Amino acid sequence: MQITAAVLRAADGPYTIESLDLADPGPGEILVRVAGAGMCHTDLLGRVPGDLVAKPVVLGHEGSGVVEAVGPGVTGVTEGDHVVMSFDSCGACDNCRAGVPGACPQMMALNMLAVPLDGTPRATTAGGEAVHTRWFGQSSFASHALGTVHNVVPVSRDVPLEQLGPLGCGVQTGAASVLVSLGVRAGDSIAIFGAGAVGLAAVMAARVAGATTIVAVDLHESRLDLARELGATHVLNGADQDIAGQIRAISGGEGVQYSFDSTAVPEVVATAVASLRTTGVCGLVGVGAAEYTLDANLLLMGRTVKGIIEGDAVPQTFIPKMIELWRQGRFPFERLITSYPLDQINQAEADAQSGKVVKPVLVP
């Protein structure tokens, strides 16, 4: 079928709006008419020089929309369903079966290469040029996307579908890291480094969990103001001196029980670890750093550093939980969103990079 998509042809080039021919859904695939697609920091991996993400490519991995067709073997999803698209997984390995699909051994191949495992292109230009459309099992910067039985999550029809896409990755990562992976409980303390969509979702989740000390750290005062409105009990500008010392003072001198980093900035990660009490746990979700240097003495005293993928969530169960929290007025993720038409994708990317907006959502 003919679709419209935002195509990235070079790491340092602009997105171009193009018409593509998209294949019909094959075995285990689901055709979704996209209502909205969040732009996530991970999409910037398409701009990293080199061959990690094949070009030309359609990015986008926070799509929501309506199912238009299903391929052979698809169960549990039918035409007309409203869905959110999340990350892909194999569904059959030990980790998937244990409820941690983000740790699927095929995570890289299924999500971050943008190429089908069988190498068969799913989209082409009118001239027959292959365009890669397997980014996180969806490539949703388009009017239509092909998802899979493992990453398409049916949702209720009475919620604002065009705003739900970010629940598939960024918002899920922040919220589930707090509620699932770290297991923050009532009365706990947490410091959250980076108040973008992931960090602000973590702030909201910490408030849901009942944490009594929630410290948000960022360089943008507007984001710190929003963090306070969403549940942060304290906010700190990351440009200030001795952030770890300030956090220890806020938490009574010992440090916080949990810290959470979404920046992947090595100096910030070191500060996040230094902000912990001796039994504390630091969760890392940021992408892009080559290595971290940490004070070994901090770890020897009992602190833990934990890498987290997609919050250790199972999207099929966690996304509906976030929607229910939103219904109750306890998880207002819509406050993070600024909508743009799909053909304004380059402006949306620039605004996100500058910090002008928190979470762009592209509407075809």
Automatic annotation (TrEMBL):
SUPFAM superfamilies: GroES-like (SSF50129), NAD(P)-binding Rossmann-fold domains (SSF51735). Keywords: Metal-binding, Oxidoreductase, Zinc. Residues 15-362 form the Enoyl reductase (ER) domain. GO terms for molecular function: aryl-alcohol dehydrogenase (NAD+) activity; zinc ion binding. Its EC number is 1.1.1.90. Its cofactor is Zn(2+). PANTHER family: NAD-DEPENDENT ALCOHOL DEHYDROGENASE, S-NITROSOMYCOTHIOL REDUCTASE MSCR. This is Aryl-alcohol dehydrogenase. It comes from Actinomadura livida.
